[in-house]
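idk why but the lab printer keeps eating my pages so im just putting this in chat instead. protein + guanosine-5'-triphosphate:
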Amino acid sequence: MNIKISNIAKLPTKYGDFKIQSFKENDKEHLVIFKEPLLNDVLLRIHSECLTGDALGSLKCDCQAQLHHALKLISKKNGMIIYLRQEGRGIGLFNKVNAYELQDRGFNTIEANHQLGFETDLRNYEIVEYILNYYKIKKINLITNNPSKIKSLEKFEVLHRIPSITPKNQYNLNYLEIKKESLGHFL
Ligand SMILES: Nc1nc2c(ncn2[C@@H]2O[C@H](COP(=O)(O)OP(=O)(O)OP(=O)(O)O)[C@@H](O)[C@H]2O)c(=O)[nH]1
Ligand SMILES: [Zn+2]
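predcted complex ->
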């Protein structure tokens, strides 16, 4: 892995004061947002980029609500968000827009990926291992509903899972249902 690591900077937000650092993996500029001191068992959210949700407030998914929930929790209890640049479960923004157009025509989130020739989920979490080792983190309390994220941390001790439950609306109902029924999310 060819990783470049930035300096650490301050990031004041409406949820509190954090620090940020970037880990550049080839063309992917991941981000770590954290509040110190990091405890022995670290509160951690591994968040996958969703520009439409995180930045634009799209109601089609739960990403922005999950990100803000994690920022709030970490501002109170310290911990870290690893923000991974794997947009669209790894298919990228351009392809996600095409997937959204297929969803406009009635395909669900998984079917749309398959229609475009992609697997259901192309994400990988190798860089997470690198970042956690860099910060000497061994014990984790993970904020997620996704069982595959817990599995990806098998080299670490995941002490607890903190659910990330967000409001339902008419646009994300089917998306959340598919996450529960087909992807096995704890919802
Ligand atoms: N391909 C595709 N990706 C999507 C779609 N909606 C959201 N995403 C991406 O899904 C990723 C978030 O994954 P989710 O499956 O919602 O949740 P998760 O992060 O695996 O699980 P949690 O930790 O519980 O939030 C982000 O990268 C989003 O860009 C969609 O309809 N199609
Ligand atoms: Zn999203």
